[in-house]
């Protein structure tokens, strides 16, 4: 099967597509669970039947290693379809309301799970299937209709997503729109019942402002600047292997991987030694030729990363080679001397690991809180008490103790940021919840009218005494 070609959706058709999915939502066809389960089943098979195309597209867009595409894109989403199908009936059922005063129990209070409506999903490039199809799975499960706008920076994958969605799903309910800023801006001009956005904080601000004009709820999955903290009691080999893994996965283009490392001074030497050992173990035949390391997504991102490395005042201790023609950037560890170094302050979203030595754990925590008070992830390496201290004196969307972003590798665990790294969470049940409105409902029996007469005027003295 040949890869489909990416084409921007004509601007003039975007409004009509929005009207289509809104009309379909208002027709109530997505409400029955049978409909949703069928769509999830079809999406599963669409992914499975197009597995080869997905691998080829991710390889063309990002030189994603086969294993990374399989585990982080294809299999991830197929399993998500199954997980949703297995749990949907339970999640979608009415819940009886909790902590209700005895007298109000007579009203049979319950929470109904209503779909939010017609939703817009905007994806990012680095996990081009997972970050677009993942939220779509949640929207389908919740009974919403949706327009999905994948990232134009991964065009081959975006085209494959369009093929799968258009061939597998109800075309009046789920539509893929392709394009960049003009097309996304046009989509944002339409009225939505929810916008689910994954990408940079700068664009997140644009989305949030636009949504505020119509009081549209948003979920924002935003950028990193995540610290790893290595204390003097950490195991340097473990820290080295795990942090190298977390920065070489997808060539460092992972929102939740560590952006910088704070390390107690005593540990620097052994950590650097172990990083070099781990590097040689991971890439025994050199990193240039291995199929196990990806490439930077495009020239613009390559040049941005090259400039970042040019501007650092730090000293490269491992890596540093680049090849523009191949969009190759080697995992690069840089010893820096200040938290003001651009490699620490700015999100690299590439395979750079600035390492900043600190005097002690308190200084590490202070710097981490100053660089970015609310990162997406946080990675303490140390003993139990140190990890607990770090957790209790910082904030972050999530955290992996003694590891790189492993908490974010669990597909059924809620994933999201805090503060300016994001609003809301999804994955697993959270994906259903994020597109669901919890509608509180009571039913007042006619026989209660006598009891209820107390609430009606006139508010006589006798009523106060009752
Ligand atoms: P991006 O913000 O450039 O693009 C994301 C999406 O927004 C794309 O679909 C793009 O077409 C659209 N977009 C871009 N500019 C726009 C504008 N002016 N108006 C409207 N829409 C616009 O992000 P990216 O380069 O694809 O991804 C990198 C960023 O995303 C990093 O900051 C990374 O940390 C973050 N990210 C976060 C998560 C998460 O789950 N929290 C996941 C992946 C990436």
From TrEMBL:
Pfam family, one: Aldedh
Name the UniProt record assigns to this protein: Aldehyde dehydrogenase
InterPro entries referenced in this protein's UniProt entry, alphabetically: Ald_DH/histidinol_DH, Ald_DH_C, Ald_DH_N, Aldehyde_DH_dom, Aldehyde_DH_NAD(P)
Entry-linked CDD domains: ALDH_F14-YMR110C
Any one GO cellular component localisation term in the record: cytoplasm
Organism name: Periconia digitata
Family: Belongs to the aldehyde dehydrogenase family.
Keyword NADP: no
GO BP annotations, alphabetical order: aldehyde metabolic process; carotenoid biosynthetic process
Sorted UniProt keywords: Carotenoid biosynthesis, Membrane, NAD, Oxidoreductase, Transmembrane, Transmembrane helix
GO molecular function: aldehyde dehydrogenase (NAD+) activity
Residues at the active site: 221, 255
Chain ranges of the Aldehyde dehydrogenase domain: 12-440
